[in-house]
Amino acid sequence: MSRLQTVPTPLMLSLALAFGSAVAYADDTALAPVTVSASALALGSDQMSTPVSVLAGDEVVRRRAATLGETLAGEPGIAASHFGAGASRPIIRGMDGPRVKLLSDGSEIMDASTISPDHAVALEPMLSEQIEVLRGPSALAYGGGALGGVVNVLDKRVPTAVPERGVEGSVELRADSVANGVAGAFEVTAGSGNLAFHAEGLKRDARDYRVGSGWDHSRVDGSYNQTETGSLGMSWVGARGYLGLAYTRQQNEYGLPGHSHEYEACHPHGNHLHCGHHGAEDEHDHDHEHDEHGGTPYVKLDSERWDLRGELLEPFAGFTRARLRASYTDYGHDEIERAEGIDSVGTRFRSKASDARVELEHAPLGGWRGVLGLQTGRRDFRADGDEAYVPPTVTTRHAAFLTEEYTLSDWRFEAGLRHEWQDIDVDSSTQRDRSHRGNSVSLGAVWNFAPQYSLGMTLSRTQRLPTAEELYARGLHMATSTWERGNPKLKAETANNVDLTLRKLAGPTTFSVSVFHNRIDDYIHARTLDAHEDFQLIEYAQRDARFTGIEGAIRQQLDATFGLTLFGDYVRARLEAGDGDRNLPRIPAHRVGLRLDAKWNAWRAEAEVYRVGRQDDVAEFERETPGYNMVNVGLSYSGRYNTTPWQIYVKGNNLGNQLAYAHTSFIKNAAPLEGRNLAVGVRLEF
Mind telling me which residue stretches traverse the membrane in this protein (predicted)? Predict the structure, then answer.
């Protein structure tokens, strides 16, 4: 069992969560640092002033789930948006959507998942090799708008080296009981001389999943997930670097639980909703209408992506490394309605997007080492149909950034600057085009004040530019039961953040404790103006906001076999108003738990219990969510057949079969979390 290598955030108290917290143990009593690819300077995890978690090796194999959000939901300060089984994004420190940047080996994932939580992330976690999470707004190389953090998923689709034995790869199979799900994946790299080729693929078939005891139904209707993904890539590899190209196609079909037509007649009158009469006769009409639709709507997603990646050492005088990342994505999905046994497309989403970045690492100058870079991106987005609540737009973004570091004795200092500009062209007779500019700066320091002890701090001032959806949305959005109204007068929001992290990475006792405070001026949020039952009229508005939190873990090695970890996290988020503070919606509740891990020869095991608290700090028109307890266990065995390594693993989640609701979810009452689940998997490497 390889370890989860997590490095704190620049903030002081990190009490992480479930199946992987902010501190993990290695085969000895020290954490071997891993290189964080998402750091502009390719730093080791122990050098970062920002909070970092890295899932790698055997650990990422066991943690991977069907969605990126569920894969990372056990990490410190991270929750999942949870929209059934097909769509789930990570929520970092209470922030989601465009405030959490998702990358594929440094290149932005250009899908539609930031537009709505029912849109899946066009990426397959089961084919990932390493997943990195940088918390806080200090990763300026990827955008000042990443106030929550950056998630970088590394894969093998573009080979970076020619296999020493000519061919290498892996095959993995897994199954689970909660959704009668099965999944299989393979990846293989082959080559000789200077050429390397790679192929990989995955197929998943999961039915509607079961929930914990005490709910009205045993399964969540429409929570199935079917996925097929394939990729082909090739690279030219030389002594000083590589250049490669890969093509990936992903096809998903997944249900949309909680999607109701009950509120189709609702529409705004000024700042109020008008939903007609709701007497007994009207309720009968609604029931009849639901029967006519006859089934849960579902999404059919088709994404084609091209990736160009390259690196070159000593490209020219004065520079030690050049790095290229570029991608083009042709993304589309149809939201399909079922009525009287006939399927018809209700809404069609299409996006053609490109992203490119070039980084140059300069040779040391006066003791300073740094990276300067340029980034550009373009997204052509349109929606057609019943719920086309955003007009067609073309968003163009450009940015220039600089990151520098300086080491002096036991101190390491870092600084970052970024300037970005954005133009949005809208195809509308009633709306006008908009342009925005933003500047961001970050300063950080790490003080190694004693052997294996460090104190990190980061101060940053970052700006996030409004998205097309926040500016121009206008219409019915049944997936989230909202009628949305954009605000074309939105300006850039400005965040002032401080992070402190105290950590110890070696010895029988290790810990990582972090605290953060983020003051955001002109915070863009969906303000609820009126509500009828579960349906809300929202308008994008700006008001100052505050995010304060704590996250961390403390681990004690009990003996040569057993270790015990205490972990948890907490975030408080609110708007500041003249008439008093107002809570922000869908903020994760606090979590705290204990985990016992064991290691004996080729066996690895862990058992944990944690408590997710009741969330009663709710926004207007939002309901409280009860707390729940979770009990999870895991067991794995690694061996070899001749020279071929293999691994078998078993996981048991929610062994108490608790009925649990994710407060972060728009559809938490229609789609509770999964009930008791037993998952088994086997992986073979060659």
Answer: none
Name the nearest CA neighbour of 621 among 529, 483, 484: 529
* Residue 293 token pair: 């639709």
State whether residue 294 is helix, strand or coil: coil
pLDDT of residue 547: 97
pTM: 0.89
| Segment 562-585 mean pLDDT | 88
- 5-259+296-685 maps to which CATH number? 2.40.170.20
Candidates 591, 664, 598, 627; CA nearest to 14 is: 591
pLDDT in tens, 353-370: 999 999 999 999 999 999
Distances (CA, A) of 368 to 400, 412, 415, 583: 19, 11, 10, 43
8 A C-beta contact, residue 564 and residue 573: no
The candidate with the shortest Cα–Cα distance to 81, out of 99, 97, 65, 63, is 97
- Cβ distance 452 to 29 under 8 Å? no
CA-wise closest residue to 490 among 435, 428, 410, 537: 435
∠20-24-25 over CA atoms, to 5°? Answer: 140
Query: Is pLDDT of 183 > 80?
Result: yes
DSSP code for 142:
G
Q: Residue 24 pLDDT more than 70?
A: no
CA–CA separation, 528 and 530 (whole Å): 6
Rounded to 5 degrees, φ, ψ at 445 are -150, 145
Rounded Cα distance between 434 and 431, Å, is: 9
Strands in 208-341 per DSSP E: 225-238, 241-255, 267-269, 272-274, 298-316, 319-339
Q: What is the pLDDT of residues 267-322, one digit of tens each?
A: 888 888 888 654 444 443 443 334 444 578 999 999 999 999 999 999 999 999 99
CA angle at residue 390 from 385 to 392, to 5 degrees? 85
Q: In DSSP terms, which residues pair with 547 in a beta bridge?
A: 518, 573
* Cα(305)–Cα(301) distance, integer angstroms: 13
pLDDT value for 176 = 96
* Structural domain spans, the chain: 5-259+296-685
Cα 130 to Cα 55: distance, rounded to the nearest angstrom:
6
Q: How far is CA 460 from the centre of its chain?
A: 22
pLDDT at position 12 is 30
Assess contact for 88 and 67: CB atoms under 8 A. yes
Where does 99-144 have alpha helices with state H? none
Cα end-to-end span (Å), the chain: 18
Q: Which of 348, 377, 350, 372 is nearest to 362 (CA)?
A: 372
Structure confidence at residue 30 as a pLDDT band (50, 70, 90): very low
Neighbours of 39 (CB within 10 A): 25
Task: Note whether 420 and 144 are within 8 A (CB).
Answer: yes
- What's the pLDDT at 265? 78
Contact 680, 650 (CB under 8 A): yes
Among 178-187, 592-601, 630-639, 640-649, name the one with the lowest average pLDDT.
640-649
669 phi-psi bin (left φ>0, alpha ψ -120 to 50, beta other):
alpha
One-letter amino acid at 329 equals T
The winner for highest mean pLDDT among 241-250, 387-396, 478-487 is 241-250
- How far is residue 419's CA from residue 624's CA, in Å, rounded to a whole number? 40
168 token code pair? 């290498």
Cβ–Cβ < 8 Å for 244, 159: yes
